[in-house]
Amino acid sequence: MKEKIIVKAKGLKKSYKMSKRNIVAALRGVDIEVKEGDFSAIIGPSGCGKSTLMHILGLLDRPDEGTLEIDGVDMSRLKEKKAYKIRSKKIGFIFQGFNLIPTLTALENVMLAGKYGGMRTKERKERAKKLLKLLGLQDRINHKPNELSGGQQQRVAIARALINDPALILADEPTGELDSKTSLEIMEILKKLNRKENKTFLIVTHNLDVAKVCKKIIRLKDGLNA
Ligand SMILES: Nc1ncnc2c1ncn2[C@@H]1O[C@H](COP(=O)(O)OP(=O)(O)OP(=O)(O)O)[C@@H](O)[C@H]1O
Ligand SMILES: [Mg+2]
Predict the structure, then answer these.
(1) Centroid of ligand 2 to alpha carbon of 63 (angstroms)
(2) What angle do CA 98, 157, 111 make, to 5 degrees?
(3) From the CA of 43, how far away is ligand 1's center (Å)?
(4) How many whole angstroms from its chain centre is CA 93?
(5) Which-ligand-closest: CA of 56?
(6) pLDDT tens, 169-186?
(7) Which CATH class is domain 5-225?
(8) What percent of the chain is predicted at pLDDT more than 90?
């Protein structure tokens, strides 16, 4: 079977202009390829451009230069509205700080992402419940984020990332705020999703125990592939 390429990026550059004289070159020409079923870690020192890269791959930001294809579609000249659609449907995000909406329950948080992905109410409720159950949260679905532990909140965020059955899941320090035992539990959950459902993951981490669980390691340094 031919391997499907989910992300193909070449020569990505991104600078942040702070003032006329102060320009921070966050990415200086990064290449990256992600195949279907990959479970890869991105590692590198603080400030090397990992989050900037994730934002660009996740269509939350645009590169100054370079090309980006996601699931075979050229993203470089995409209009914002189309980019938003693709982002909602094809890409799931997991962040360090969980980023759940505090006023919504676990179930509502997961369902909301399904709404952005264009799913009908009944379908997204069923799927959200199923995912929360899969993640062991069946008796926490009506809890708000502040009524959940860190690991439970991160599992809600994982369910949210999965609801639209994305082609790619981007995780930026997904275990950054968790203790080491919970971190490894979360990594086991992600790995299981990768193994059983062939979900494709790209995971930024500075935790070498987390990186060890990954199948491939992509290194960045000073805004370049290292
Ligand atoms: N919005 C911004 N405006 C200006 N500079 C920025 C902005 N975001 C990031 N930078 C700078 O770009 C560089 C890359 O930042 P980035 O957040 O991608 O690093 P990182 O590898 O994710 O670091 P960390 O491991 O600390 O999260 C850093 O030097 C940072 O200071
Ligand atoms: Mg970062």
Answers:
(1) 16
(2) 130
(3) 14
(4) 3
(5) 1
(6) 999 999 998 899 999 999
(7) alpha beta
(8) 83
